Amino acid sequence: MFQSLLKSLRRPGVRATFPVLALAALLGACARPEPGAEINDPYERGNRSVHRFNTAVDKFFFGNDEQKGVIPIIPRPVSIGFSNFASNLGQPSAVLNSLLQGKPGPALQNTLRFAVNSTIGIGGLFDPASKIGIPADPADFGETLHVWGVAEGAYLEVPFLGPSTERDLAGTIVDIVIDPVNALVDTNEAAYITVGRLTAKVGNRQRFADTYESILYDSADSYAQARLLYLQNRHFELGIEEETFDPYEDPYAQ
Amino acid sequence: MPSNLSRRAFSALGLGLAAASLMPGGAQALNVDEARALIDKLIGEINSVINSGQSESAMFKSFEGIFARYADEGYIAASALGPAGKKASAAQKQAFASAFKRYIAVKYGKRFREFIGGKIEVRDARPLKNFFEVVSTAKLQGQSPFEVRWHVFDKSGKVRFFNLIIEGVNMLASERTEIGAMLDKQGGNIDKLIAALKAAG
Q1: Average pLDDT over residues B125-143
Q2: ipTM of the assembly?
Q3: Which helix (H) or strand (E) holds A163?
Q4: In this complex, which of A210, A221, A232 lies closest to B173 when CB atoms are compared?
């Protein structure tokens, strides 16, 4: 169903009706966790194939200990500039989502950040806002769905995008459609912005190479590690308390 | 009368025992300040290693030493092995624990390499369930600050951290997944797992 959803996204003219209808269909279809299963991953077989594909793509572009990737290393200051640029352009979307979640505080903070970094930060290439004590307070539509009470659904590994869940993938798609930046730029500018965002992703992958590569290439089961990391980190962002082991119990019995 | 008295004495003793058993670690209860002090000292040592400019292999050695002094490695190893430990002999458990120590120091030593030139600061400490949680913030060059939580107890009689949670990602859970996957690869054979772990460290 995701393939058809993504295909319908690429067709012109479906944008207006897409969010409400597709979202309703998608949420209705969210898989329920199996009783007793710690991780809700009913599509594990398919996910693992996608993971092998994503890992091969990553190795081709970025390489690992054994081989070099085809993409040359972006110098660190340039990479940080692109990362700042992309994250600044994500601010309007974060503001919108904070408002949808009924949180005016973070919305105001991110508006201020966007104003400071777009001007003093030269179009977002620098991040003076963080230095003067206005840190980013990220928000996305997956989080908005969580706030609205929508269940997480099954774990998914998405081609090229990597780990997600049914709820987060729906969020990612909706975020692309409702991004306020779309309304502010023309087609040419939109193309530059897309290139800037992709470059930022490449730069981040290169700057945090040790972390990415230790998970993708050094772990015994990189699929399971990536899944655990994604879900735990995502729950942390969403403020969901993880269950902790009782450390006074027998560790062999848990 | 005497029987009344002894009953009173008995119930007082009972209350005292009950109160003691409610506190983690019993009579010599660990408190939140001691938990915080441990992590303060630990972070001081980590900060000095990541800013010392020593070679990578020297840093791994330093981290191995820090882990040995501040972490309950025995508990972390046992927890990583998990239910598979039930079938293991005492000798196997010991061999696993010693291979695991080296492996974990190298692995997390590599992680801390990214901290070079950065700084970690303790922000807060609080009781959590039957142990303590110390919250710290890592400020690294070129990225937004992120949160590192340390779980501290004194199960072994010594104050030690037994878990590390970076932006929600839990070391014990991650290592249990990793060791479980390694064991599966070795067909469930613990001796082969120990050999693989030695090779990985």
Answers
A1: 89
A2: 0.80
A3: strand A162-165
A4: A232
CA distance B132 to chain A (A): 11
Where chain A has pLDDT below 50, the residues are: 1-28, 32-37
Share of chain B above pLDDT 70, in %: 84
Q: Residue A112, class by beta-carbon neighbours within 10 Å (0-12 exposed, 13-18 middle, 19+ buried)?
A: middle
CATH homologous superfamily of domain B3-18+72-200?
Answer: Tgt2/MlaC (3.10.450.710)
- Cα A223 to Cα A226: distance, rounded to the nearest angstrom: 5
CA distance B149 to A236: 12
**Residues comprising chain B, all counted:** 201
Residue B3 touches partner A, C-beta closer than 8 Å:
no
To the nearest whole angstrom, how far is the Cα of B80 from the nearest Cα of chain A? 8
Q: How far apart are CA A136 and CA A88, in angstroms?
A: 9
pLDDT of amino acid B143 = 75
Residue that is written with structure tokens 């840093």 in the block: B59
Tell me the shortest Cα–Cα distance from B43 to chain A, in angstroms. Answer: 21
B108: which 2 tokens? 């997390």
In one-letter notation, the amino acid at residue A251 is P
Is B151 close to A211, i.e. CB distance below 8 A? no
Nearest CB to B178; choose among A225, A252, A253:
A225
